[in-house]
Design a protein that fits this description.
Helix content: 40-55%
Number of helices: 7
Radius of gyration: 25 Å
Strand content: under 5%
Shape: globular
Largest sheet: none
Mean pLDDT: 77
Low-confidence stretches: 11-20, 156-175
Order of helices and strands: HHHHHHH
Structural class: mainly alpha
Length: 175
């Protein structure tokens, strides 16, 4: 059967517009990165061991979650060179158990309460990555000094006798 163009026949298109999709304002065509490319990237950063067997690789949704965490960290001035240290000291950061929103409160605390810029926040977190898992109200605000330069997140409260035995002994002698 031969079909001819007719003004009475509807024109069919294979293109379907998704109204829920956000519009691209940058003018560039954006493609979602493929699973294999993300795996290669995570292997290069040592988040995934290069010797991992194919059947033990994370699922695509898990890989997307880890890449979202990396994107969040990069938005706070971390680089690819910082990731192996973070992964070595806190591998749970790059798991599906931790969402970027879980650690965002720590970045807000560092910026708002301590006045730390991105470089200072990055430095504090690289020195002590477990800081990202601290509860802001219960742990961080209770021990925060006035400036981020003198703050050591690993330090115990100053009134702890085990931390400062000389100061504690002086205080006992004065009583």
């Amino acid at each position: 059967m031969l079909l001819r163009y007719s003004p009475h026949l509807p024109i069919m298109s294979s293109y379907s517009h998704n109204p829920n999709r956000s519009t691209n304002k940058s003018g560039y065509i954006k493609f979602r990165t493929r699973y294999r490319e993300n795996l290669r990237y995570l292997r290069a950063l040592t988040i995934i061991d290069p010797k991992t067997k194919p059947e033990d690789l994370p699922l695509p949704n898990d890989v997307d979650h880890i890449v979202a965490t990396l994107t969040f960290l990069k938005s706070h001035s971390f680089s690819d060179a910082d990731v192996p240290r973070l992964n070595f000291l806190t591998p749970q950061l790059f798991s599906t158990a931790v969402a970027p929103s879980d650690v965002a409160a720590v970045f807000r605390f560092l910026a708002d309460d301590l006045g730390a810029n991105e470089s200072e926040s990055r430095g504090l977190i690289l020195r002590c990555p477990k800081l990202l898992f601290s509860h802001v109200d219960l742990c961080l605000r209770a021990h925060a000094p006035i400036s981020p330069a003198g703050w050591d997140p690993r330090a115990e409260p100053a009134d702890d006798p085990e931390r400062a035995p000389a100061e504690h002994a002086r205080g006992q002698a004065a009583r």
